[in-house]
Amino acid sequence: MVSQITKGIKIMVRTSFEGTYFKNYKIHFAFSYEITIENQSKDLVQLLSRHWEIKDALNDVEMVDGEGVVGQKPIIKPGESHTYSSGSLLTSPFGTMKGFFNMINFTNSRKFKVYIPIFKLCTPFALN
User: If you ran DSSP here, which 8-state letter would residue 127 be given?
Assistant: First the structure.
């Protein structure tokens, strides 16, 4: 598991290889990831949107932007956390993801970025 804290918000990431799939006549490697957003600050915050940079072993980069996470814009109280799961398909057996969440602090009405640490997506057989 990797983790990082930005402005009192801790991001923790776990990954798993889910298998291979054929899509558009190509083999794809499916990965799932679980992200926990823990509010270690003293302020009420809300996740507004996300930005991902997904890179495979061939240096193909995909940028993904969108509102919320898996259809939600969670409000996270001090001392509480929000966990969600999602996934990504790569055309190689390993790659990386990194990004950030755009959030708002309800105490001072300021928007801020919380960085998601770079994490690896790797098939077990690619480690040998």
Answer: G
Q: Is the pLDDT score of 8 beyond 90?
A: yes
Q: Count the residues in the chain.
A: 128
Percent of the chain with pLDDT over 90: 89
Strands (E), the chain: 2-6, 9-23, 26-39, 45-56, 61-67, 75-76, 81-90, 94-105, 110-122
Distance CA 55, CA 68 (A): 21
Is the torsion defined by CA of 66, 33, 81, 116 positive or negative?
negative
Amino acid code (one letter) for 70: V
Closest listed residue to residue 29, CA positions, set 13, 18, 15: 18
Question: Can you identify the CATH homologous superfamily of domain 2-118?
Answer: ApaG domain (2.60.40.1470)
> How do residues 63-108 score in pLDDT, each as one tens digit?
999 999 999 999 999 999 999 999 999 999 999 999 999 999 999 9
Indicate whether this model's pTM tops 0.85.
Answer: yes
Q: How many CB atoms lie within 10 A of CB 39?
A: 21
